[in-house]
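hey m, so remember when u said the tokens were messed up on ur end? i reran from scratch. heres the input so u can diff it against urs
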Amino acid sequence: MRIGLVNDLPLALEALRRSVARIPGASVAWTAADGEQAVTRCRADRPDLVLMDLIMPVMDGVEATRRIMKECPCPILVVTATVTGNAARVFEALGAGALDAIDTPNLASEAGFDALCRRIGHIERLTREERGTSRLPATAPAAAPDGGASPVLVGASTGGPQALCALLQAWPKPLPFSAVIVQHLDAVFMAGLAEWLAKETGHRVALSVPGSMPLAGTVWIAGGMDHLELARNGAFRSRKPDTTDLHHPSVDALFESAAASGLRPGVAAVLTGMGSDGARGLLALRRAGWTTIAQDQATSVVWGMPGAAVRMQAATRTLPLPEIGPAMLSLALAAGRSKP
């Protein structure tokens, strides 16, 4: 695994070098002192992963991430001095296509090195899954079950924060239904993501609480590292992930639980993201009579997850991002008016 390092501070670069040296089979592809250098070097020699700082001279990490994902896309992990202190920029970078964010290791602390190495290992597994995604068999949808009202369901990963922001901005306030979102992101960022989405969109956004109901008027986001599911009565429940699960929380776990719950068929969407999480669950929802939507390739930062759903014929519609919010709104209102 060849890794590009982007940071203008010599001590930070040394910490990143030491982290890479701990990973079997990993090596430093190149280093860059600012975002502009990173774009140039990535264009000339695309690595398997870029460790991207946020605050740099000439060009910051947000713009560099945006440029790299447009001109020479590759996995990007934001590694910056303080993730919580740069929350707004972190979510901008995630929206531009970065996979995740983590604090820069401290040369005096083993914990920081271990955390970064684990995060890199997870991304390596994710990119292997992305390369291995193949054409999946199509299955015709089955008859819809009866049941109670359902929330709108959404899954997203790479580029998800900005896509979710655009989606929510297309919905009226107060929200006439409930929405439940699984966004691939480390648990420590989930509260910040909820606050950022609420500020950007004006909606009430909260983290899900096991045992509570996804009440209308609120956008609920899966928090923590357990899978978020819907019980047969529509309440939230959590499930411990298996050791082999690549994503937790998983979009598939949410979607499949909703399909099995007997709730009234509603509407669900898979947005931009690397890998294939959500495709299998979207197919389960389609079989259960739900209207299922995949974001199109042109407007996706990464078309892995929605692309897998399209190949599986799990999506009843494939739409550009600006059309998904209005479509989900009209479909959700129509489903709410229908009789169970």
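this time it looks ok to me. The mean pLDDT is 90. if urs says something different then somethings off w ur setup not the seq
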